[in-house]
Design a protein that fits this description.
By secondary structure, this protein is mainly α. The protein has 13 helices and no strands. It is globular, with a radius of gyration of 19 Å.
């Protein structure tokens, strides 16, 4: 009889899991400065080491962690902090819908557990892998390896940022590496007119709607980008059907 431990061993030993872990290492290096900044932010907000690592472990989101630290430092109620960070993470609902077919081959316990590893980077890598060969199980294992690499690096860099990040000169502007990391993931995905239009519409919308409260501009821009991309895909399909 196969036990959960044996199944876990097979997943960790699989070639696709290892490939996902290794292929995500360059991206992990790119998010190191962001992890350091998050660690510094937690210390600046008055968190102790346990609190700082709790943010890194449970939230596992640079943008949400920085926002939470800023709000806590300003004395915002915990309920408001949780609500605001939840709104900021609403884009993962869209990611989850796209990831559901990929994670379906995994046992239910595994798919529920690895859903916690969903990040922008891991999502982009999983979609590229699935598009490359169409094998959902291999893409799921690859995604799990990618997510584990990111989560591990995130804990280490947050811990380092908490202890030594305050000695790094502010002039280094460590946060610049984050948008560069996302751009490196986005560029290979812009392979067609729907993809390009969706990116352009979302980019313009997120800036135009910056005045919306609670970072709702991110959610609205994402929805507008999806609608624009779908509209172009439908138009292309009708044109080809003629």
């Amino acid at each position: 009889m196969t036990t959960p431990r044996h199944r876990a061993g097979r997943v960790l030993a699989s070639e696709d899991f290892r490939a996902g872990f290794v292929e995500m290492l360059p991206v992990c290096i790119g998010v190191v400065p962001f992890g350091l900044v998050c660690g510094v932010g937690a210390a600046a907000a008055g968190a102790n080491f346990a609190g700082a690592m709790g943010l890194a472990t449970i939230i596992f989101s640079g943008a949400a962690q920085i926002l939470a630290c800023q709000m806590l430092a300003d004395g915002a109620p915990v309920a408001v902090v949780i609500l605001t960070c939840s709104v900021l993470g609403l884009r993962f609902l869209m990611y989850s819908a796209a990831m559901a077919p990929i994670l379906s081959p995994l046992p239910r316990r595994w798919s529920g557990a690895v859903a916690f590893l969903l990040t922008d980077q891991a999502f982009a890598a999983a979609i590229r892998k699935y598009d490359a060969h169409g094998d959902a199980r291999r893409a799921a294992l690859h995604y799990t390896g990618s997510g584990m690499a990111l989560w591990t690096f995130w804990q280490v860099t947050n811990a380092a940022g908490f202890y030594v990040g305050n000695v790094i000169p502010a002039a280094w502007s460590l946060e610049f590496a984050v948008p560069l990391c996302f751009l490196a993931l986005l560029a290979p995905a812009l392979r067609s007119a729907p993809h390009v239009l969706a990116a352009v519409v979302a980019g313009v919308a997120v800036m135009a709607l910056d005045a919306l409260p609670m970072r709702l501009n991110l959610v609205v821009a994402g929805v507008l980008g999806i609608v624009a991309g779908l509209a172009v895909e439908m138009a292309e399909a009708r044109w080809k059907a003629r």
